[in-house]
Amino acid sequence: MTTPTAGRPSPLGAAVADGGVNFSLFSRTATGVELLFFDREDAPKPSRVVVLDPVGNHTYHYWHTFVPGVRPGQLYGYRVRGPADPDRGLRFDPDKVLLDPYARGVVIPPGYAPDAARRPGDNAPTAMKGVVVDPAGYDWEGDRPLRTASARTCIYEMHVRGFTRHPNSGVKEQLRGTYAGLAEKVAYLQDLGVTAVELLPVHAFDPLACPPGRVNYWGYQPVNYFSPHPLYSSRRDPHGPADEFRDMVKALHRAGIEVILGVVFNHTAEGGHDGPTLCYRGIDNPTYYLLEQGGARYADYSGCGNTLNANHPVVRRLIVDSLRYWVTEMHVDGFRFDLASIPSRDSAGRVLANPPVLWDIETDPALAGTKLIAEAWDAAGLYQVGTFVGDAWKEWNGRFRDGARDFFRAAPGSARRFADRLVGSPEVYGHKRREAEQSINFVTCHDGFSLNDLVSYDRKHNEANGEANRDGADDNRSWNCGAEGPTDDPAVEALRDRQVKNLLTVTVMSLGIPMIVMGDEVRRTQGGNNNAYCHDDPANWFDWSLVEKHADVHRFVKLLLARRLLRDITHEQQRVSLTEMLDRAHKEWHGVRLGQPDWGDGSHTLALGAELRHQPLAYHLILNAYWEPLDFELPPVPAGGGRWRRWIDTSRQSPDDIGDWRAAPAVAGESYRAGPRSVVMLYGGAG
Question: Which residue from 587, 28, 576 is spatially nearest to 287, judged by alpha carbons?
Fold first, then answer.
């Protein structure tokens, strides 16, 4: 057996080199480190232990060694020694097998047991292990980032496993719920017309970080920020998850679809003071986490028991290195940062005006042109929608969601607020002199009701979560259209269909980047559960029979998105701000009478006329959230004369609710009757 040598502190992690692998681990407060090699996932003890010398294998706070003969695919972990003094934030446990924070692969043994990482004693058989991965060996076949213009982007938020896990997905059984399964259904996404998928977390996570008897389905409990989640892979070889993920990315790119990852750089699966010791806690607890009470307790701005110390230099480097890796080696196109306001806090939890880690991300040249999306709030009440730092970040616009829901359920005072949301939310973003596409417009996301349930339930129904229906949001701004849950009443079902189409229309047609959620295009239901994070079952999976059952809604979405791909992008290329764009625009607000918008609290109507600067084309958008039909006066067609053409009228039965853009029928008369609770889109000019 060849003797290990001193190795190098850089790069961190397990780096494949000629003749072996260099290992490097940061720990400021450790007194000893052992590198462990395993022959299989559930091995009861390591096959080899390399004890790192505190002098020869230790430079500054980096523990390192080069081990000749080690090859890609080797399973490994660490044991780290140091003071066990929780009152000072030191939680070393030399019995625990720890993941390398920079591991490029992770295996989860069949008997994985996080409880063993909580209790005293050795947890080797049940611990996750790292995998030595050589990313250089993959053939990308010329794949490059797509760099789709934001003005033509439509995001489809989806779950890798849930998309094809259902038995009726048409995917081979061994591929259901995997990266390969998603790759097999790329044609569906391409046909639908989305330009980007936003994946719920695919960083390796703890599948058991949830209440007993349930599973962590959403994946918001990360254990490693470099490894694709291994349980989403159909392959069991050590390189399988990484290569299968890259195969999926390559397939999506060939279809013109970008890949955006949901990332969780705000907390980890190690939880609070009584959580398992999996990785960071046992390597250098005070470096990786925000601590309170002198180190005895974890600050919790995430609602998950702990908070990453994101602005510490070491953690900043980890985050940026992870993002670079996913862009350069895995070819992803962007990131959606969960609870992105948390990295705005310093080590004491105070909000920073210029958070170093967020500027590190924005200004990193390897990430230039990458789509960066912030969920600009946290679980402790910090809400930064419209005030998030930086020049490049897009934001999930929660105010668009609330405004759209309020308007179409006819809430008092909603017309004026929603008018602002339609034109890019200038009340929220106008002060920043940023582009119109800073706003990610959405009505639903994974967290909350599906779109079908938003129009089918007045109340959440989360009993299956085992928390007596106490979990999940109570402020849903939903309306069941006259019956709670499923119904055979054709009038209620027709109204729900209409409301779904109304909300989809304004999401896609408003200024900003639209986001829709997996299955909303076919009225996927979660049975009224608005917090379905812990269910890996048909209630969360895409039911492919709905594509036929709700073919009218599916068709509606396809035609809606097809027009978005024709949007002009001149303003984006010229970096014209939302404010400038609106100042230059020829637009006018109306009500049922021309030039007389009703901004009163009792108003449930809006109409907007607008001309496109770079096309001889005019729009007239009518929104009737009133419960009776109303006649809206029409102006003359300003773009080249002629008649208005009806592209969308959600009050009409399919296929007359929407048609091919260029074949829209002409409208006669000087007014248009909009049905109750409907959206109408007319256009005039060359089209």
Answer: 28
Tally of structural domains, the chain: 3
Catalytic residues: 338, 375
* 663 shares a domain with 562: no
d(CA 633, CA 620): 11
Give the strand pairing for 394-396 and 439-441: parallel
pLDDT of 238: 84
- CA 498 – CA 657 distance, rounded (Å): 9
Between strands 678-685 and 371-374, the pairing is: unpaired
Residue carrying structure tokens 């997996």 = 518
Is residue 202 in a domain? Answer: yes
Is 339 found in the same domain as 201? yes
Query: Measured at the alpha carbon of residue 160, what is the angle toward residues 155 and 162, in degrees to the nearest 5?
Result: 105
Instruction: Please count the CA atoms within 13 angstroms of the CA of 523 that sit on its side-chain side.
Output: 24
Single-letter amino acid code for the residue at 111: G
For tokens 């759209």, the residue is 404
Query: Does 533 share its domain with 478?
Result: yes
Residue appearing with tokens 């994974």: 446
Nearest to 620, CA basis, from 680, 685, 669, 562: 680
Residue 638 has what pLDDT?
A: 83
Q: From 84, 108, 135, give the residue that closes a domain.
A: 135
Query: 429 and 544: one domain?
Result: yes
Which residues on neighbouring strands pair with residue 60, listed in sequence order? none
> What pLDDT is recorded for position 661?
83
Angle CA 191–146–310, to nearest 5: 110
CA distance 217 to 538: 12
- pLDDT score of 432: 81
Q: Which residues of the chain have pLDDT under 70?
A: 1, 565-583, 613-615, 639-640, 686-687
Same domain, yes or no, for 91 and 238?
A: no
Distances (CA, A) of 460 to 303, 395, 523, 536, 656: 20, 26, 17, 19, 34
Q: Indicate the helix (H) or strand (E) that contains 162.
A: helix 160-164
Q: Can you give the residue range of the structural domain that contains 194?
A: 152-268+309-570
- Asked whether residue 531 falls in the same domain as residue 674, the answer is no
The answer to whether residues 26 and 173 belong to one domain is: no
**Domain final residue, candidates 537, 570, 603:** 570
Query: What are the CA-CA distances from residue 24 to residues 34, 60, 65, 67, 83 (Å)?
Result: 12, 12, 7, 11, 21
3-state secondary structure of 596: coil
Beta-carbon count within 10 A of 350 CB:
8
Look at residue 568 in the predicted model and tell me its pLDDT: 67
Per residue in 276-295, is it b (16+ CB within 10 Å) or e — as a string? bbbbbbbbbbbbbbbbeeeb
Task: Pick the closest to residue 108 from 204, 182, 36 (CA basis).
Answer: 204
Could you give the C-alpha distances from 503 to 373, 374, 514, in angstroms and in order? 22, 22, 11
Query: How many Cβ atoms from other residues are within 10 Å of residue 553's Cβ?
Result: 24
> Is the residue at 140 inside a domain?
no
How far is 514 from 501, CA to CA, in rounded Å?
14
Strand 58-59 to strand 62-68: parallel, antiparallel, or no bridges (unpaired)?
A: antiparallel
| CA 462 – CA 134 distance, rounded (Å) | 44
Residue 288 covered by a domain: no
Compute the 3-state secondary structure of the chain and give helix, strand, coil in percent, each to the nearest 5: 30, 20, 50
Question: Alpha-carbon distance 189 to 343, whole Å?
Answer: 33
382's tokens: 């910090």
Count Cβ atoms below 10 Å from residue 677 Cβ, excluding itself: 23
Domain co-membership, 562 together with 616:
no
